[in-house]
Amino acid sequence: MGALLEQLRRLQNVELQLAAIRRGRESKTRHIDVARRQLRQIDEKVQQNHAKAREVQMRIDALSLDVAAQEESINRHRQALNKAKTNKEYAAILTAMNTEKADSSKTESAVLQHMEELARVKGEGSTVEAEKAKVLEHLASAEAGLKAFDDQSAVELKRLESERSEISAKIHLQAVEIFNRVAQRHDGEALAAVTKPRPKRDEYSCGGCNMKVTLEVVNGLQTRDEIQTCKVCGRILYLDLPAAVKSARA
Ligand SMILES: [Zn+2]
Fold first, then answer.
1. What is the pLDDT of residues 143-179, one digit of tens each?
2. Is residue 11 located within the same domain as residue 81?
3. Distance 211 CA to ligand 1 centre (A)
4. Does 156 share its domain with 213?
5. Of 22, 86, 182, 215, which alpha carbon lies 20 to 30 A from 136's?
6. Separation of CA 18 and ligand 1 centre (Å)
7. Ligand 1 centre from 63 Cα, in Å?
8. pLDDT, position 249
9. Looking at the domain assignment, is residue 178 inside a domain?
10. 212-213 and 236-239 beta bridge pairing
């Protein structure tokens, strides 16, 4: 193998390790994103629950005012009963008072119903808060996971990046650009070995996508130290099998 392809293979080796670190980091980041999304949803539930509790409380307050007003009115009628001058007047006041008593007891039972509802809403609120605490715990552990990953991979990342610069400096700029473009497309896998699927046949394939590689390309790889890409997936091809080389020559 020529010097260019040899350097590109070294570069690929570094690039694959960088890609593995990148993938590891992405998976840690995804965990954080999931937890944050859950937190947003649960915060919405908390808001809705608080709004509902406020609404029920306001209805209780309004009904309690009604109860107070009704009781005051009943008291007034009770006093009026004692001052009634005729039976007819007495009966009229009594009827009005009884109607008010019935209304008041309806209002009181409505207050009780709303208080039960408020207790239920607050119970739901506690459940949601407990869920939120769990999600916050997940989020904290996901963030700690990412931090631990970054701390752990920092030295390795620095070493790989400097190794990448060092190797890149030895390669023609244009070749590095091709390499980077292909690496980006295939998650760091910029190179593919030419394979020979059937030992007895002079047929060659790209080890990256398994599509056919022409004999002309194989011969080119054997005789010239230059970049030949797979026509299908674009990976930079190299020869790794002495047997393949020999057959191509024959
Ligand atoms: Zn290919």
1. 999 999 999 999 999 999 999 999 999 999 999 999 9
2. yes
3. 6
4. no
5. 22
6. 22
7. 77
8. 47
9. no
10. unpaired
Distance 188 CA to ligand 1 centre (A): 14
The per-residue pLDDT for range 86-129, each reduced to its tens digit, is: 999 999 999 999 999 999 999 999 999 999 999 999 999 999 99
Q: Is the pLDDT of residue 245 over 60?
A: no
| Residue 56: inside a domain | yes
User: Is the pLDDT confidence value at 250 over 90?
Assistant: no
Same domain flag for 228 and 164: no
Q: What is the mean pLDDT of residues 47-69?
A: 97
Q: Are 21 and 70 found together in one domain?
A: yes
